[in-house]
Recover the amino acids of this structure.
């Protein structure tokens, strides 16, 4: 299998962590890809018109899109139910938490693009502030979810939370999330003890 990725992408990081945790990392070839808003990439567009990272290209040429769907595919490949609970209330709780975290990452990425990519005269500060508030308020909600932070078996929602916090460190280093959310800070530090999390930390910005 081949995975298009960038070391800076929190979505690709999610898949990398999952692949390591599932024991599948050696079956994946990592292909570096660059996707920049406003800049065409015809070669990558032929793989996915959405031009989003990552995508997983199977040995038969089939393409699996979206980081969550890729993780779910890998989870099934590894026997199922390891990172995505197979059934019951926990399954829907984990999937719902993941959807919120995915949306938080989307908002953080849009804030990054607004500040660093959009020409300054065209920037919309109120729009960026609104998206940052979505991410920040999401962190505040997870700060209160002690059960989720303490679940003994690693799941896709916990991996996504690691990627949110890691991306905050990477692109918004002065945002102060550690001071504002000490329980998230403790969770993040504990997760960094896992090799999958530690080796997938983005390079210095």
């Amino acid at each position: 299998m081949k995975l298009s990725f960038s070391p800076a992408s929190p979505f690709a990081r999610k898949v990398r962590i999952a692949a390591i945790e599932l024991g599948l990392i050696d079956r994946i070839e990592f292909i570096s890809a660059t996707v920049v808003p406003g800049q065409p990439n015809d070669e990558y567009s032929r793989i996915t018109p959405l031009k989003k990272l990552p995508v997983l290209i199977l040995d038969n040429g089939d393409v699996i899109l979206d980081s969550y769907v890729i993780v779910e595919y890998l989870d099934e490949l590894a026997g199922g139910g390891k990172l995505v609970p197979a059934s019951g209330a926990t399954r829907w709780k984990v999937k719902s938490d993941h959807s919120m975290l995915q949306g938080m990452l989307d908002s953080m990425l849009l804030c990054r693009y607004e500040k660093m990519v959009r020409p300054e005269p065209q920037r919309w500060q109120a729009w960026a502030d609104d998206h940052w508030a979505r991410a920040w308020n999401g962190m505040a909600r997870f700060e209160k979810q002690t059960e989720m932070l303490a679940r003994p078996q690693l799941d896709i929602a916990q991996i996504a939370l690691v990627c949110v916090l890691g991306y905050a460190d990477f692109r918004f280093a002065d945002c102060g999330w550690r001071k504002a959310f000490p329980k998230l800070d403790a969770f993040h530090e504990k997760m960094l003890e896992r090799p999958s999390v530690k080796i997938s930390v983005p390079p210095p910005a």
